[in-house]
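Question (not urgent): is this output format expected?
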Amino acid sequence: MRLDKYLKVSRLIKRRTLAKEVAEASRVLVNSKEAKPSKELKVGDLITIEFGNKIVTVRVMSLEASTKKALATSMYEFVSEEKKI
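Got this back:
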């Protein structure tokens, strides 16, 4: 599954166009490497997202084409969340 679609389906980022823009701005890393929106993800990949004042790292647990809001958090596991100085 593409990175931008995964971020949207898992609800880490609300809209796919926003997920695409964030990735194009080099604010998303997959396995510690800059990732383009078209990067294909696999189960077990680590995604690091730089939001305004925090950095969140999650591990991909499943790749669902679509999911209900209540089940979206089961697609990933939080690894770390740190405040940006």
